[in-house]
Design a protein that fits this description.
Length: 179
C-alpha cells in the first residue's frame, strides 16, 4: 500500500498471488507515484487506486499487471498506463474497471484476456469523467472490448486493435465518445 507519498519513483516492484498487488490510497494526503517495471502476478487486483493527487497522479510504464486494474469512485487524480501488459486472470471478469473523476490514459498497452474466466464480459469498463485509450492491442478470448458507462463525460478511443476479430465498443455515456 502506498499512502503517504509525494513524487515517489518506484522501480521493479514485484508481487505474486496477493489480493491487491499495488494499492494507492490516501493516508495523510493523496499520492503521486511513478512505477516503472512493476510486475504483479496472479493477483486478484494488480492495481487499486482509491485516490491520487489531482495535479500529478499515478503512472505505470513498462509493467506486467496480472489481475484487475481498478480505480475507485473516490479517485480524483490522473492515472496513466503506458507500454504495459494488463492481463486478465480467473479472479475478476473485467480486466480494467475504471471509476472516479480523474482522467485515465492507457497508451500502447496489450490488454490480454486469455486468462479471464468469462469471455462474455467486457474487457474494459470506463466510468470516469474523462479517458483516453490509444494504440492498445486486445488479445485473448473476450469479444467485448470497451464499455463506456453512462456517467462518463468524455472518452477518446483511437488506434486500438484486436488480434482476433473486430474491436467492440459500446457507448452509453452522457458525454462525447470518439472512436
Amino acid at each position: 500500500t502506498f499512502g503517504k507519498t509525494d513524487w515517489e519513483y518506484v522501480y521493479d516492484i514485484y508481487a505474486e498471488n496477493a489480493k491487491v498487488g499495488v494499492r494507492v490510497t490516501p493516508l495523510e494526503s493523496t499520492g503521486n507515484i511513478l512505477f516503472n517495471g512493476a510486475d504483479m502476478r496472479g493477483c486478484q487486483q494488480s492495481v487499486l487506486v482509491d485516490d491520487c493527487q489531482a495535479h500529478a497522479g499515478v503512472a505505470f510504464t513498462d509493467s506486467v499487471l496480472e489481475g484487475q486494474f481498478a480505480t475507485e469512485y473516490t479517485n480524483g487524480g490522473p492515472v496513466k498506463v503506458q507500454n504495459s501488459v494488463i492481463r486478465a486472470n480467473a479472479y475478476k471478469d473485467i480486466v480494467m474497471d475504471l471509476h472516479g473523476s480523474g482522467t485515465v490514459i492507457v497508451t500502447g498497452c496489450t490488454i490480454d484476456t486469455a486468462g479471464g474466466k468469462n469471455a462474455a464480459a467486457w474487457a474494459v469498463k470506463i466510468n470516469t469523467d474523462r479517458s483516453a485509450f490509444t494504440g492498445n492491442t486486445f488479445t485473448g478470448k473476450y469479444t467485448k472490448h470497451i464499455y463506456v458507462d453512462q456517467s462518463s463525460l468524455g472518452a477518446v478511443l483511437t488506434g486500438n486493435a484486436v488480434t482476433s476479430g473486430k474491436l467492440t465498443v459500446e457507448d452509453v455515456s452522457s458525454g462525447d465518445c470518439f472512436y
